[in-house]
Amino acid sequence: MSDQGDANISPRRVTVCYTLLMKIRIRYFASLREVVGQSEEIVTLHEGMTIADMRAILSTHYPRLQPILERSLCAVNHAYVTADTLLHEGDELVFIPPMGGGTLLENRLWNR
Fold first, then answer.
1. What confidence tier does 21 reach under pLDDT thresholds 50, 70, 90?
2. Is the dihedral of CA 103, 104, 108, 109 positive or negative?
3. Which residue from 6, 37, 59, 84 has the highest number of Cβ atoms inside 10 Å of its Cβ?
4. Percentage of the chain surpassing pLDDT 90?
5. How far apart are CA 57 and CA 31, in angstroms?
6. What is the rounded CA–CA span in Å between residue 38 and residue 27?
7. φ, ψ (nearest 5 deg) of residue 82
């Protein structure tokens, strides 16, 4: 091989793509549990997903949940949060469906 031939070899390009996944636990109560048929499940999501994203996934998977989820409060790891909250590995997500007489509580939580 000549010296010229070696000069024409270009370095290999290696493209690395990571898809980071996380697992969260979703707990279901009351009417949500009745629709889903279980009290909790572990789901695998892409990192960077929000509660709003999870609502959309659940509404697609369980269409009867959509009207309930739209009116439900959300809690992550025992703290009330908004739908734009990012989810993280190991989080426990709870949707709290509206209950009779719960209007005052809803107003207090969302109007802080």
1. very high
2. negative
3. 59
4. 63
5. 18
6. 9
7. -95, 165
Q: Check residues 99 and 41 and name the one with the higher pLDDT.
A: 41
Residue carrying structure tokens 């959300």 = 74
Give dist(CA 84, CA 50) in Å, integer: 6
Domain layout of the chain by residue ranges: 21-110
Taken as a whole, the chain contains a residue count of 112
More confident residue, 9 or 35: 35
**Residue 58 CB coordination number (10 Å):** 23
- CA-CA distances (angstroms) from residue 16 to 19, 21, 54, 81? 10, 16, 27, 35
What's the CA angle centered on 94, arms 93 and 95, to 5 degrees?
125
The three-state secondary structure class of 12 is coil
Whether 51 and 18 have beta carbons less than 8 Å apart is answered as no
Is residue 7 predicted with pLDDT exceeding 90? no
